Each structure stands twice: as C-alpha cells, then as structure tokens.
Amino acid sequence: MGILEVKDVNKNFGGLKALSNVNLSVAENSVHAIIGPNGAGKSTLLNCLVGKLIPDTGSVMFDGQSVLGRKPHEINQMGISRVFQTPEIFGDLTVFENVMIPCFAKRDGEFRLHAVEGMMNEAEIVEEAERMLIDVNMIDKRHAHSASLSRGDKRRLEMAMCLVQQPKLLLLDEPTAGMARADTNNTIDLLKEIRDKRDITMAIIEHDMHVVFSLAERITVLAQGTPLVEDVPENIKGHPKVQEAYLGEAA
Amino acid sequence: MFGLNKKDSTLLLIVAGLVLLAPFLLNPFPEGSAMAQFNAGYPDLMQRFVIFGIFAIGFNILFGLTGYLSFGHAAFLGVGSYAAMWMFKLFGMNVLPALALSILMSGLFAVVIGYVSLRRSGIYFSILTLAFAMMSYALAYSVLAADMDGPDQQGLLQKGLTGGETGLQLTLDDPRILGQQTAGDGNLPVPSLFGLEMRSASELNVGDWVFTFSAGYYFSAIVMLLSFYLSIRIFRSPFGLVLRSIKSNQQRLSYTGMNPKPYMLAAFVISGMYAGLAGGLMAAMDPLAGPERMFWTASGEVVLMTILGGVGTLIGPVLGAGAIKYMENILSKINSDILHSWFAFLPDGLEDFVVTLIYPFIGKGWHLTLGIIFMLVVIFLPGGLVEGGQRIARAMRRKKQTASDDDTKAKQPAE
Amino acid sequence: MEAIILQILNGLDKGSAYALIALGLTLIFGTLGVVNFAHGALFMIGAFCAVTLSRILSLSHTVVDETQKDFLGNPLQVEVPYVYNIFGQATGEAIIDWAVPLAILFTIPIMIGVGWIMERGLIKHFYKRPHADQILVTFGLAIVLQEVIKYFYGANPIPTPAPEAFIGSFDFGAMIGFEAGQIIYPYWRIVYFMFAAVIIGAVFAFLQFTTFGMVVRAGMADRETVGLLGINIDRRFTIMFGIAAAVAGLAGVMYTPINSPNYHMGMDFLVLSFVVVVVGGMGSLPGAVLAGFLLGILESFASMPEVTSIIPGINQVIIYLVAIIILLTRPRGLMGRKGVMED
Predict the structure, then answer these.
(1) Which of A21, A107, B186, C291 has the fewest Cβ atoms within 10 angstroms?
(2) How many domains does chain C have?
(3) In the prediction, which pLDDT does C335 show?
(4) CA distances, C80 to each of B162, C51, C53, C69, C161 (Å)
(5) What mean pLDDT, rounded, does chain A reach?
C-alpha cells in the first residue's frame, strides 16, 4: 500500500478525455516520476491530486484519507506540498518572510488570528526558517526582495518553502522547465540531496528524461490520459511502448 | 518599547510628539498677521486631522496589506456615527460607551458586508463594496428615516433610525437613562468623558500667538495614537505577514496550507471597526450624524488619503488625511482678494495675470488641485508622500554621505 | 397592462443612458483591458458640449431698433444673435431651437479628440499596471475633469431645452390601441431611446461588418494572438477609445433636455454604469446593453407606488441589490465570458 493511491480516475473536459482509468501507487519514501508526451494528462493528474480539479470518477487516497473535495489548503495540511512549473513565491516579501509563512501554516493550521504579537518574536519559527535557509544555502540572501532573485534562486526558495513544512509528499511539476542546463543540474543535485537527507516521498512530473533518470526510483509513463507502463528506470529506457508513445509524438 | 523594535518605536514617538504638540506646530503664524489664515491649529480642524487619520489607518490595513480596494468604506463611518448618536440619545453623553457601540456595530456590519463581498476579488470586490455602501446610504436617507412611532405618537423614532436628510440629532426629550436629559442651563448636554466636556478648551496667549488646547482634540489624538500603535503591531505580526502574502500571491498561500478567506475577513472587519471608531469620534466631537457620511464620495476620500500619503506604509495614511483635510479647510478659504493682496507687489497687469492663473486652483477650486496632485502621485509616485520623502532623503544622503541615517530611517516605516 | 407599459417606457430613457455608457466602458475594458473610472466624465463633457453649442449659437450683439420704443421713449435696444445675421431670422431661430440635436455634429469630433488625448496621454501608460492603479488614476482624472467643468460653467444645473417640436408629451397608449389618456409619454424620451438604439446598432454593425471591427473583436477575444499576426492593435484600440468616448459624449448631449447638466452628473451615472457593466458581464457588449435596459426598467418598476408601499425604499436600492445577487450567483454576470477579470 503506497502513501498515495490513485484508483480508476477519470476526468473529461467537455468531450475531451483528459484522464481515463488512471491507477497509480506511490510508495512511501520513494521518488516516483510521471512522464509522458505533451497532452498526456500529466498536469491534469497533478491538479486532481492537489484539489484544483475534482475527478469525475475514481478515488485519490493519501495516507489512508481521501483528498477529493478538499480545498488546496486542506490538502496541504494533510502533508502534501507542491512546487510549480514556474516558481510561485511571494514576490513582494523578503526571502526570510517567504520561508516564515509556511512555518506559521504548519504550526497554526489554516487560520489563526495572531494579530498583535511581533512576528520576529516567534523564536522557534525564526529559528526554523533560518535553519531551512542555511540548508538551501540562501541565508545570505535572507533580506533580499524575493522578486529580485534569479530563476534558479526562486526555485530554490520555493523548494525551501515546501520542505520547511516537512511534508510527507512533495509534488514537483516540471521543476526544471525552461531552465538552462547548468540550472537543471543544480536542481537535480538539490533534489538528490533532499532525497538522501530527508524522509520524504517525491512525485515528479517531468518532460526532461535526463532529470527523470537521474532521480526516479519508479516511473509511470502516461499517454493520452492512460498509464502505459509502470516500472523501474532501467526497464523503462528500452520499453517499446514508451518509445512508441514518444516517437508517435515526434512523428 | 511596547513590543516594538527600535525603528517603529522611534516612529511612534515622533508621531506622538507631533500630535500632542499640534496646537503649537499648526499655529506658526501670529494672530492677525496676513499668514494667520494658514494656521490649522484650531480644534475643529485638528480633530478632523486625527479622526480621518484613524479612518485612513484602518483603510490601509485592508487596502495597503491585502490589496483589496474597497470603494464603500464610508458605510462603516456612517454606521459608527449613528451608533454613537443612539448611545448619546438613549444612555448618556459619556463618549466611551458610545465609541464602544460604534466599534461593535460597524464590526457587525463589516462581518456581513465582508463575508459577501470577499467572495469576489478585483474590480468585482470594489463594485460590491460600493453597492453595499450606496444601499446603506439610500436606506439611511429614506427608508430608515420614516416615522416608526406610528402616525399619532411622538417619540424617539419620530424621524426613524437615521433622521434622513437632516441627520440624527440630539433632542431634549431623549431619555438618556444613565445621564442627564438636559444640561444644567436647560440646553442640550454635550458629549463628555466622565464630565470632561469634549468642546471645552483653554487658550494660551504668547505674545501675538494664540494656542488653543481642546479636550476633544486631545481625546481624539490619544485614540488616534492608540489606533496607530495597534496598526503597527498588526503590520509587524504574523497576521500582517499573511495579509501581505495575500496581496503578493494568493495561490501560493493556499498551497502553503493557509485559508486566505478568514484572514481577509478579519482584515476587513478590523478595518471596518477603525472606520466605525472614526465615525463615532466624529459624532462625539459634534453630536450629529447624517447619511452623506456614507455617500460614495466619502469612500473615495479615504482612498485618496491613503494613496496620497503612501499606501501600505505605516505613517502614509495619516499624512494623506492631514494633507487633504488641510487643503479642504485652508486652501479652500483663499479667495481672489487674498491672492491680490499677496501679489500686490507685482505691476498691475502682471498681478491680474498671476491671480487669474492661480485662481482656479484655490478657493472652491481646491478639488481641482487635489485631483491633479492625486493623479501625479498615482502616475509618478505610487508610494505617495512617504515615497517622496524617501526619495528626497536618499538624494540628500547621496550629497551628504556623512549625515546620520537615523532621521531618514524614521521616514521609512514600512520597509 | 397600461401601468406595465408605462413603467417599461419610463425605464427606457434611463436604461438607454446606462446602456450607452456601459457600452463604452465595455469597449474600453474589452479592448484595452482598462477599467475607466473617467467614463462618466466623458458623458458629462458631452452634455456640456451641448450647453456650449447652444451658448455659442445664442451669442448676440446689441442692435438699436428704431421702430420700437421702450417705456422711457428711447429707441429699444434688442439683442440679436449673430446667427440671425448669417442665416436670416427664421433659419436662425430654428438653428438655436435645434441646438441640442445640432450639438451631435459638434460633439463627435470633440469627443473623439478628447478620447484620443486621454488614451495617448494617460491611459496607455497604465496598460501594464494593476487594475487598482487604473481605477485610481482614472478616478483622479474624473475629479479633475469635473472640476474644470465646474470652474467654467458653475455648480448649478444648466437647463438646456429640447427643440420646441419635441417639447410636451403624446398619448402613446392611444397610438397602440389602449384607452386614451392612460399612457402619456414625453416626445423627447422616445427620441432619446431611438437615438440610443441607432447608436448601439451602429456600434454593433461597425464591429460586425467592417474589417476594423473584426480585428477589434478578435483582439477582445485574444489580444496576444492578434498581436502576433502583425496587426498593429494598439492604434486600432486608440481609435476604439475615441469611439467609446464619442458614444458616451453623444449619450450626454441628448440627455441634456431630460436632465439639466451639472458637473457631477458624470459621477452619478458612472457608479450605476459600473454596476450595469458588472451585471451584464465584464467584457460582454450585448451584456452591457441588455443589463442597461434591464436595470433601467427594473428601477422604474421599483418606483411604482404599488411596489414602494410594500417594500419602502426599494426604488433606491434595487439596482445595487440586483447587482449583489447577480455577482454572487452568476459571478460572470448575465453574459460574461470565462476568464475575464477572474484572477
């Protein structure tokens, strides 16, 4: 029984079948990649996991509880954090403030009115945020306006914001999309470090094979809304069905 | 100090100093001199400075932190005034219970209006708040002003809950069960703080200068300082941080596990309570409440104040409120005769020309000046007067590297 | 039945004004993506164009009329408008009488010019800025414009009559077969409604049948793609802004006989027109027109004594109430498109 269990999920947009009979099981403390050509339904699947979309039929269980019908913030409270394709951070705030918000969310739940206490007086949260920034090598940029960061740093900051919550499952939506090779390699190193140092499950949606094969322990190949194969990376590489799916796209 | 860091404490102390010394600072010109009309140190105007300061501070908690632009905040101002008036009519002239009811009632209104309006964002939110405020205005103007005592009875509700166009006034027949119905001299009693009448004032003559110290002003000023202090605490709290993150990226916030809705509603209600407090103070200074306080122009005014001073900064709204109320009361009093006397040193033709050139912008035309300044601020100085101050300070610092940094820091409260 | 028809008719003229202003607001919002709080001021400027023209036409010089004597026995001094000198007395009188409709010709170029200056001089710098900034700067502009008008024309309403031929009312009921004397309707209001219908029809025809209109509609649907096709959208949008300004201005010109123009009429109408736009659906032209008439008629129904006796004051709040209900149940308005201002 995996930590994330997707069973018979279907999702239609009008007449378009975005997902049909998707089954997926992500084992705890593993890195699971979901790959597939454009339009395979990867993003739709991800959105079903985080509460942005609700599947027409089927079930999505996380840690023994259903996530369906829950709002994004409730799903996050269950222990799922998400990294976006383009880094979503609080651009108007400083790096340090960016990291403090998830700490508050983790400690106080979805709402708590702490209206008059100074935020810098919250010693444990300040400490937690500082530790996290040291971990991702950004402590020297703590006072920087986060909108002024480079793209790589924004990605790093977003990861820090997710990791500081110590989520059980980290969802990554094409974390290296649009990145230069060097930045991609940095991101891979960062993710490897996270994988090795922390008890965390990661589900990565990715287009870039290089990223997938350097990180993933299991891979699910999605094509036209249906999972084609699920296996370890070595077996995926030469799999005829996978080649067909990708070559089909190329042709 | 008071749980604030050094920078914020300094700011609070400076503001407190300025506010408490205002009767001196705003009366720099001797009585009877040509410049005396620029004196703003009379109680009526000083009260308006601080009361609108409170209104703007509250508005800034909503607009400055969350970025939600309410175009109907005057509704809460009106509710606060009416609530205070009813307290004066029913129970007595002490201002504290009146203010308490103002805050409570406007808070309740804000819960209802906020709960509905916050289901939409952007321009839709602005229109919803505007619609609610205009509904309140229309109701206060007509429906709630209908005779609710019945045709053959003369009672408290003779002119309804709001008094309609003429507004809600005190009468000698009001019960005032906890206070006196009439003052000792048979006139209407005046609002007071445990016997200290709000309109009482003492004058100090120093040479040609006359300084007036009014109980009403100092009471409002202290309330304003408390509100200001509270707003600093809110800005610096985790709550304030979450509000700023709503403005910055609402999507990320919900994926971070926080629900933006209750935070928004809390900000809206706090901000509405500030407006109610301001409205209650207005009634306490001058016991009268009319529906025009809820009209959308009044909502527009607080928007102007906040933007002009510097939205999202601590001190900006107060500065903006002061600037606009100063223009409204001082600039509008200048007439062409005064202009002629100023430019009398010029040759006749030139004098007339200069006066004609300036005339449209003063007196009754002060709104034009306001509109132009406001546009210039939105276009060139989105941070308002505060940003202007910072830019000047920075330019000065570049010139004089050795100058101490302390005073410039005091001008950067939000950073 | 008569009462219902009467209320519908009564709602038409206000509805027409709402629809015309809302149409312009929507054109600007749909094409430029700008929320224009100064649009009411354009309506007001149009109205004052009519006032100005009637004043220009009435400019006169003093002539000593030897044939008449005043009560002191001196020759009578008569004010003779210059138009009489040019066109002769009969034509001159007619021209002055028809000042308001004539102002249409005079207003169109002025309003297009005003719109062009506004767009090039101010609005275009705000395309990339947040909607709140657009609201604020146009709000400031509206204050400036109305204060300028107040400076030149004073604060009091200026009565500007319709041509004599249209003053008075007619029995609309008798015309359509009801009992005489039941449905009396002023001529000018029916003129205003027809005028509005023509303008709305013209705008829609223009957008529907010309290449220019096609590009604009495409741009409203998807600005970026049309830009990629190498079409210079910005220039067309500037023209669109001029047209929207002209529509608002014309609505103002023709409204002067119904309501004497004053400097704050623009703001009064603007607040309601925004509500109309939101009810109709932000960015939907048919929605704006539909909602304009609908709310105008609804307002007039709500002010019937039969209704106000049941729910007092409903006439004052009906529009806002409808807006609140619609916004909460149909967030996109009556005919709004998906994805407009939903972020």
Answers:
(1) B186
(2) 1
(3) 81
(4) 54, 19, 17, 16, 20
(5) 86
> Count of B–C CB contacts within 8 Å?
110
Can you tell me the mean pLDDT for B276-294? 92
Give residue for tokens 């006139």: B187
Residues C39-71: b if buried by 16+ CB within 10 A, e if exposed: bbbbbbbbbbbbbbbbeebeeeeeeeeeeeeee
Rounded mean pLDDT, C292-320:
84
φ and ψ of B277, to 5 deg: -60, -45
Distance between CA atoms of B409 and C150, rounded to whole angstroms? 43
Residue from the list B236, B245, B262 with its beta carbon closest to the beta carbon of A101: B245
pTM to 2 decimal places: 0.88
| C80 pLDDT higher than 60 | yes
**CATH number of residue A173's parent domain:** 3.40.50.300
User: How sure is the predictor about A250, in pLDDT bands with cuts at 50, 70 and 90?
Assistant: very low
Q: How far is C254 from C107, CA to CA, in rounded Å?
A: 11
Contacts of B69 in chain C (CB under 8 A): 132, 135
Q: Do B233 and A115 touch (CB under 8 A)?
A: yes
Q: Is the residue at B48 inside a domain?
A: yes
Q: Identify the closest residue of chain C to B127 by CA–CA distance.
A: C275
How many Cβ atoms from other residues are within 10 Å of residue B140's Cβ?
Answer: 30
Contact check, Cβ <8 Å, A165/B254: no
What is the token pair recorded at A181? Answer: 């090779």
Q: Please state the domain count of chain B.
A: 1
Checking if the pLDDT of B218 tops 90, the result is: yes
Mean pLDDT of C54-58: 86
CA–CA min distance A2, chain B (Å): 23
Does the pLDDT value for residue A243 go beyond 80?
A: no
Q: Is the model's pLDDT at C77 over the cut of 80?
A: no
Contact B259 A73 (CB under 8 A): yes
Collect all residues of chain C within an 8 Å Cβ-Cβ radius of residue B145.
none
Residue B378 lies in a domain: no
Of residues B414 and C252, more confidence is placed in C252
DSSP character string of B88-153: HHHT-SBHHHHHHHHHHHHHHHHHHHHHHHTTS-HHHHHHHHHHHHHHHHHHHHTGGGS--S-TT-
State the sign of the Cα–Cα–Cα–Cα dihedral C139, C140, C141, C142: positive
Question: Does B340 fall in a domain?
Answer: no
Q: Which of C40, C41, C44, C29 is nearest to C237 (CA)?
A: C29
| CA B120, B123, B124, B130 torsion-angle sign | positive
Q: For an interface test with C, which of B66, B368, B381 has the most C Cβ atoms less than 10 Å from its Cβ? A: B368
C-alpha to C-alpha distance for A47 and A50, rounded to whole angstroms: 5
pLDDT band at C133 (very low <50, low <70, confident <90, very high): confident
Nearest to B189 by CA among B278, B96, B280, B88: B88
Range of the domain at B183: 6-295
- Residues from chain C that touch B250, judged by Cβ atoms under 8 A, are none
Which ipTM score applies to this complex? 0.89
Interface present between C and B (3 or more CB pairs within 8 Å)? yes
Query: Is there a contact between C282 and B132 if contact means CB atoms under 8 Å apart?
Result: no
| φ, ψ dihedrals at A229, nearest 5° | -140, 150
**Whether residue B277 has pLDDT greater than 90:** yes
- What count of Cα atoms within 13 Å lies in the side-chain half-sphere of residue A59? 8
Is the pLDDT reported for residue B408 higher than 60? no
> Quick one: A87 exposed, middle or buried, by C-beta within 10 A (0-12, 13-18, 19+)?
buried
- The residue segments making up the domain with residue C15 are 2-56+99-329
Residue B415: pLDDT above 50? no
How far apart CA C123 and CA C95 sit, in angstroms, is 37
Rg (CA), chain A: 19
Distance CA B75, CA B77 (A): 5
What's the total number of domains in chain A? 1
CA distance, residue B406 to nearest chain C CA (Å): 32
Give C200-228 pLDDT, tens digit per residue.
999 999 988 888 888 877 777 776 676 66
